[in-house]
């Protein structure tokens, strides 16, 4: 079945059983296609091991979204050996100031002249085409792994993702959705207001507000799979299933209100 | 002068002017040496350009701390081309589980067997020797640049910086001080509770609490040089001078109380 189920042209998928007029269910599907049909999703995935739980979460998302009729692209950062360092290698040709190198100024200029290095350009193309960007990663030090931080540092450059002015609600990626799907070693109890690690919303602030919202993304609620250090096989299955279940109606979700009260006052 | 000023053995530094008994000032210095004498400082520095303002802040710190008699070591991450990616290349020899690679498990095992790659080991040695670690960096996406995130991901591994249990106040780097010295493009007004980017303390949470405090560091107040995108040459000089001035009495400072109230309620 997969995405082809919703992409039927002349014949409906029940045609082998119904040689007469088109089946009533298929008419309904044509009038009310499932939310994902025609949507484009980019999954930016940062785990070293395909057999990991992060790998499974990524796989489940690809399968479920494809089944809905979405076009799914995965940037598998470790297998791409993605470059995380922001250096002058990111611009081709001569710098605008050969004496003093400013990464922000030079990449802004290079973006305008189409002189960014090709790996950055390729990721920007994927983001530009996407309706939804899902970030799948294990929490490292209350944040993304460095390889994914490097994706943010290098891909979301001025000119492409924002300008000054032209940020937060006016960020250039407005109209797109973003979602963080992450795993933690520590338990959900540790990530509560009175837990040792504080409310999980605290560590989401730099990522969801400072990065994604800054670029104009509407942010969907995070998907957090807590406590992997102590979870049983059964608990992991439940977490995987709940992710798959959520994705079935992901296109109907309302974004969070990505401002301080969501993080610090609720 | 520099650090040798305070390291005088037989003769005091005024000996060329005083051939008689030791000068009174030198006696005082012997009884009350300045705080930095004999202290070791590691500066983890993440900027591409020596002529940058970050470069100047780093230079000022090296000079002032050396003058006090500290031994100062700098890890200049870009010039080292420091590896930010957390991969199986970080362990030498056979992994403990050849079928499924877990970075956390494998590096913990490798630490115990002294089988981590040499660049990680070398940074751990510098941290182990330091009384104070200063991180000097420009804020990228409300956080550290990826190259510095990679330093945190790879150097502060389980077994070296913490264990479970053995974190926060019991973290293995307890007894050491840490300080974030960072620059922002945005102004101080933007980083207030009612500003577009929220209180600057919000973005410090993952770094100061989630990372440094987790490893046991006592955290000194951050040094934030705001508004570099709009600052005049004169304003930059003032910021540099205030950093140098602060460092003169850095060893007398009390650490912040690194828990949620400092970040979210004051």
TrEMBL record, chains A, B:
<comment type="similarity">
    <text>Belongs to the NAD(P)H dehydrogenase (quinone) family.</text>
</comment>
<keyword id="KW-0285">Flavoprotein</keyword>
<dbReference type="GO" id="GO:0005737">
    <property type="term" value="C:cytoplasm"/>
</dbReference>
<protein>
    <recommendedName>
        <fullName>Ribosyldihydronicotinamide dehydrogenase [quinone]</fullName>
        <ecNumber>1.10.5.1</ecNumber>
    </recommendedName>
</protein>
<keyword id="KW-0479">Metal-binding</keyword>
<dbReference type="GO" id="GO:0001512">
    <property type="term" value="F:dihydronicotinamide riboside quinone reductase activity"/>
</dbReference>
<dbReference type="GO" id="GO:0046872">
    <property type="term" value="F:metal ion binding"/>
</dbReference>
<keyword id="KW-0274">FAD</keyword>
<keyword id="KW-0963">Cytoplasm</keyword>
<feature type="domain" description="Flavodoxin-like fold">
    <location>
        <begin position="39"/>
        <end position="247"/>
    </location>
</feature>
<dbReference type="InterPro" id="IPR029039">
    <property type="entry name" value="Flavoprotein-like_sf"/>
</dbReference>
<dbReference type="InterPro" id="IPR003680">
    <property type="entry name" value="Flavodoxin_fold"/>
</dbReference>
<dbReference type="Pfam" id="PF02525">
    <property type="entry name" value="Flavodoxin_2"/>
</dbReference>
<keyword id="KW-0597">Phosphoprotein</keyword>
<comment type="subunit">
    <text>Homodimer.</text>
</comment>
<keyword id="KW-0862">Zinc</keyword>
<dbReference type="InterPro" id="IPR051545">
    <property type="entry name" value="NAD(P)H_dehydrogenase_qn"/>
</dbReference>
<comment type="function">
    <text>The enzyme apparently serves as a quinone reductase in connection with conjugation reactions of hydroquinones involved in detoxification pathways as well as in biosynthetic processes such as the vitamin K-dependent gamma-carboxylation of glutamate residues in prothrombin synthesis.</text>
</comment>
<keyword id="KW-0560">Oxidoreductase</keyword>
């Amino acid at each position: 079945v997969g995405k082809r189920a919703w992409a039927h042209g002349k014949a409906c998928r029940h045609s082998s059983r119904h040689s007469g007029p088109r089946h009533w269910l298929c008419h309904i599907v044509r009038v009310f296609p499932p939310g994902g049909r025609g949507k484009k999703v980019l999954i930016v995935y940062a785990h070293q091991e395909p057999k990991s739980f992060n790998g499974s979460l990524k796989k489940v998302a690809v399968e479920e979204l494809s089944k809905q009729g979405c076009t799914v692209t995965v940037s598998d950062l470790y297998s791409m050996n993605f470059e995380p360092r922001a250096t002058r290698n990111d611009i081709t040709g001569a710098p605008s100031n050969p004496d003093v190198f400013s990464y922000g100024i030079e990449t802004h200029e290079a973006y305008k002249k189409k002189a960014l290095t090709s790996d950055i350009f390729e990721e920007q193309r994927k983001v530009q085409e996407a309706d939804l960007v899902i970030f799948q990663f294990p929490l490292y030090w209350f944040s993304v792994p460095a390889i994914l931080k490097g994706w943010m540092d290098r891909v979301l450059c001025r000119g492409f993702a924002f300008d000054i002015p032209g940020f937060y609600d006016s960020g250039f990626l407005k109209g797109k959705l973003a979602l963080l799907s992450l795993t933690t070693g520590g338990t959900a109890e540790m990530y509560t207001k009175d837990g040792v690690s504080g409310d999980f919303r605290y560590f989401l602030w730099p990522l969801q507000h400072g990065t994604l919202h800054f670029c104009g993304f509407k942010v969907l609620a995070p998907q957090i799979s807590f406590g992997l250090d102590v979870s049983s096989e059964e608990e992991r299955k439940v977490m995987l299933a709940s992710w798959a279940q959520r994705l079935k109606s992901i296109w109907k979700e309302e974004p969070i209100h990505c401002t301080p009260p969501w993080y610090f006052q609720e």
